[in-house]
Amino acid sequence: MRRLYNKVVSQEMRDDIKRRSQYYASDWTDGFKAKRMQQIVPAILFLYFACLTPAISFGTIANEITNGSIGVVEFLLSSGLSGVAYSILCGQPMAFIAPTGLTLAFISGLFRFCSSFGVPFFPVYTWVGLWTSFFMILLGLRGSSKLIRFCTRFTDEVFNALLSLNFIYEAASSLRRNFVLAADPMNLTMPFVALSVALGTFWMTLKTQAVRTSIYFNDKVRTGIKNFGPVAVIIVASLLNQTPALKKFGVPTLSVSNTFQLAGGRDFLIPFMMIPNHVKLLCSLPAMLLTTLFFMDQNISVRVVNNPENKLKKGEAYNLDMVALGLITGALSVVGLPWMCGATVQSVNHVKAMMRTKINEETGEEEVNDVIETRLTGFVIHGLIASTIFLLPLLKFLPIPVVSGVFLYLGRKLMTGNTFLQRVKAIFISSENLPDDHPVHIVGRRKMNAYTILQFLCLYGIFAFKQCSQTAIFFPSVIGVLMMIRSFVLPKFFSEPDFIALRDETPKKDQ
Question: Which pTM value belongs to this model?
Answer without folding.
Answer: 0.80
